[in-house]
């Protein structure tokens, strides 16, 4: 498997996930940055807003602030949103 971390962890491209709060709101219909999630790779539990956001590629990638692996990947096309949440044990949506 290719190691893509060395390419993606360029500090200039890195924001925290609060910067994509509006996008998350559009997708989930709720404020998500203060909600917890759990990294499937290292088990780190943290608010979504603390994830590292990479927004320059095709779509948005949110990475764990502890192990830097991908937690969420969001790609938008004109008629759909693709959400890859394989790196999250869970996402919590407040009722
Ligand atoms: Zn992690």
Tell me about this structure.
The protein has about 100 residues and is mostly beta strands. It has one domain (about 5-90). Helix content is about 15%, strand content about 35%. The chain contains two helices and eight strands; from the N terminus they run αβαβββββββ. The strands form two sheets. It has a five-stranded antiparallel beta sheet, with no helix packed on it. A three-stranded antiparallel beta sheet has the order 3-2-8, with no helix packed on it. β2 and β3 (about 45) form a beta hairpin. The mean pLDDT is about 90. It binds zinc ion. Zinc ion (ZN) binds near residues 44, 66 and 67.
**SSE sequence, one letter per element:** HEHEEEEEEE
Tell me the overall shape.
Answer: globular
Question: Number of helical segments?
Answer: 2
- Contiguous uncertain segments of 5+ residues: none
What does the largest sheet look like? 5 strands, antiparallel
What is the number of domains?
Answer: 1
Could you estimate the helical fraction of the residues in percent? 10-25%
Structural class: mainly beta
Bound molecules: zinc ion
Gap from first CA to last CA: 39 Å
Radius of gyration: 13 Å
According to DSSP, the number of beta strands is 8
- Please list the strands of the largest sheet in the order they lie side by side: 1-4-5-6-7
Q: In percent terms, what proportion of residues is strand?
A: 35-45%
Q: Look at the structure and give the mean pLDDT.
A: 88
